[in-house]
Amino acid sequence: MVISYLQNGYFALRSFYTLNDINTILEATKNCLKNKNVQIIKEDDGKTIRSIMHYHLHNKILNQYSRDSRIIELIQQLIGTPVYISQSKINLKKGKKGKKWDYHRGFTFWHLLDGKPEPKMISVFICLTDQTKENGAVYVLKESHKNVSEKSIKEESEFINRTNHKKDTSSKLSIQIKENYIEKYQSEYEKEYLTGKAGDVFFMHPKLLHASDKNTTNISRDLMITVFNSIDNLPLKSDRPNYLCEPFKGALEPYKL
Ligand SMILES: O=C(O)CCC(=O)C(=O)O
Ligand SMILES: [Fe+2]
């Protein structure tokens, strides 16, 4: 697992959660949506929900799943220090209505916009529904996390829409990777779809290039995403809202489910 993470930039834990777990999470997600403090990002149609932000702060059951001791243990092994949650969201990609995510590296946003110095971070993706090419599964460019410097991140990036933070996670991301760089990376690295079943979990390196297409089916493609950051890697300059860059309130306490 550790070798595969370092080599490819991601790895999968198949059937990590039972369907019972997943139903519990989906039910809790419905309750979370009733909470007025939770930040919702809509698709460009202004109606369809795209992301439910900082889910871990607004529902007790979701909070417990966000601190699953088995996952935290793995993350601490990979990062080497205690961690906290620096961002969390549930991305619903509704049948026929859910839209794409452009190619990006999480670290571009967390480093350039929030000033997190190092890639001592990991994103965990829990599949809440089956993930297929047709319903818009995430795809990655395998090994594209390697040889990425601060200079190369700046060179490949183009800033748009910098005044509206809701665009930081919209279908046209506020930091775009320039077209010529995307073409270059697509020719250099192998594209791999993170397809799987509800209950599968993916771990992703913060520098790995990834994207997803719109949902062309009637089946929703739902993902619960939690970004863990080292307690030694706090943001130095973020002016973004808390739901994009959560303030540090102490190391995460693992929860035994
Ligand atoms: O939901 C997706 O398809 C991609 C989400 C993603 O990459 C992100 O939230 O950073
Ligand atoms: Fe992402």
Descriptive report:
With 257 residues, the chain is α+β, with helices and mostly antiparallel strands. It contains 7 helices and 13 strands. The strands form 3 sheets. It has a 7-stranded antiparallel sheet. It has a 4-stranded antiparallel sheet with strand order 5-12-7-10, with helices on one face. A two-stranded antiparallel sheet has the order 8-9. A hairpin with a 6-residue loop joins strand 2 and strand 3. Helix 2 (19-33) crosses helix 3. The model has no long low-confidence stretch (mean pLDDT 96). The site of 2-oxoglutaric acid (AKG) has 8 residues, from strand 12 and strand 13. 2-oxoglutaric acid (AKG) binds next to strand 12 and strand 13.
